[in-house]
Amino acid sequence: MSRAEKVILTNMCMIYDDAGKILVQNRSNKNWPGITFPGGHIEKNEAFHDAVIREVKEETGLTIKNPILCGTKQFQTTSDERYIVLFYKTNLFFGELVSSSEGEIFWIKRKELLQYPLAPDFEEMLAIFESDTKSEFYYQTTEDGVEIKLF
Ligand SMILES: Nc1nc2c([nH]c(=O)n2[C@H]2C[C@H](O)[C@@H](COP(=O)(O)OP(=O)(O)OP(=O)(O)O)O2)c(=O)[nH]1
User: Fold this and answer.
1) pLDDT tens digits for 120-142?
2) Is the complex ipTM more than 0.95?
3) Is a pLDDT exceeding 90 seen at residue 67?
């Protein structure tokens, strides 16, 4: 029996600077709207590293260097696909900030993040981006529904 499964691969990148700021996107997509980090779908035959650099460029105008894989997020879609988000972070970037149709891009102070209308469960995702001991955000399906697990 085949062990292959349907998977959707995406990425997301936390870009931060040395002054305590992070770059956020106000997603205009009605599907999972709100403040989040830039990112998008990984294309067929594309290295994960190249995909995050491309998505950040498309959505922010910035060119990032040395994105570091720092975690994952997963859930099962209603079409029974495994939806995977690869989390990256970097403080190396250059270029001019330009927003895309995906949503406005702007710098905020990290300590003020919770004052913004975050995308659903983004605060828990951020815990993974910023943790040295946890690297997985997982929506676990239980008899009572779905719960967030951080591993
Ligand atoms: N649609 C959706 N996206 C999510 C969820 N959780 C989560 O981290 N994401 C992230 C993964 C990606 O960074 C981004 C995918 O957004 P999208 O589906 O609008 O894809 P996109 O248009 O940005 O992708 P692309 O066409 O530019 O390649 O959102 C979620 O529950 N639903």
Assistant:
1) 999 999 999 999 999 999 999 88
2) no
3) yes
* Side-chain-side CA neighbours of residue 55 (13 Å): 29
Q: How far is the CA of 38 from the centre of ligand 1 (A)?
A: 9
Q: Sketch the domain layout of the chain as residue ranges.
A: 6-150
pTM, rounded to two decimals: 0.96
Task: Give, for ligand 1, the residue of 12, 13, 41 to mutate: max count of ligand atoms closer than 8 Å to Cβ.
Answer: 41
User: Which of the 8 DSSP states describes residue 133?
Assistant: S
Residue 77 φ/ψ, nearest 5 degrees: -75, 170
Rg (CA), the chain: 15
Instruction: Please tell me the distance between residue 40's alpha carbon and the centre of ligand 1 in angstroms.
Output: 5
Looking from the CA of residue 42, the nearest atom of ligand 1 is 28
CATH entry 3.90.79.10 includes domain 6-150: yes
pLDDT digits (tens, 9 = 90+) for 4-15: 999 999 999 999
Cα 39 to ligand 1 centroid, rounded to whole Å: 7
